[in-house]
Amino acid sequence: MDIVCLDLEGVLVPEIWIAFSEASGIPELKRTTRDEPDYDKLMKWRLGILKEHGLGLKEIQETIAKIDPLPGAKEFLDELRSLTQVVIISDTFTQFATPLMKKLGWPTIFCNSLEVADNGEITGFKMRCEKSKLTTVKALQSMGFDTIAAGDSFNDLAMIEASRAGFLFRTTDAIKKDYPQYPALESYEEFLAAIKSALSA
User: Fold this and answer.
1) Which of 42, 115, 118, 141 has the CA that lies 20 to 30 A from 125?
2) Of 2, 7, 15, 156, which is the active-site residue?
3) 50-69 pLDDT, tens digit each
4) Which residues of the chain carry a pLDDT beneath 70?
5) Residue 27: which residues within 8 A CB-CB, separation 6 or more?
6) One of 2, 9, 152, 156 is an active-site residue; which one?
7) Does the annotation mark 9 as catalytic?
């Protein structure tokens, strides 16, 4: 039995931190997992910048409320979900993801959670499990699923490598160059066709 495991940001919705960087006028916050493979290091650095500027969850959620799925993403996801089981595995946080899941028709998502003080300051974050994307794919496989995985960043590579089929979607030139064994797709039409082909293989 197949299950498709998708990354969220950059694949179905715009990068939340890039949107917030533009809204807040803080260019440093444009740094994402495409630039920094160490997620723990990246998040601690982000929280330091938020603290320095006196920004908290409320300000980020105000930006997220204005974010829509990438053009064609919901239609792609709807069709994919009519063909097979789909789960979104993301390193984002429940407090960020919920409004976006509503716009995507409430797909299943496994993500992390933020630690937030009463005044709205984000004081920390709690990862759902260690190496969350790889661990989740391995757990699904242990339950009898064949996984097909796709993403755009460094933190997606482990789940792609561990899956029966894997794809890169709208990734960077550097990742394409370093991982030429994975098809690098740019449109939802070719993405859907590639997954359909993997499902029938």
Assistant:
1) 141
2) 7
3) 999 999 999 999 999 999 99
4) none
5) 21
6) 9
7) yes
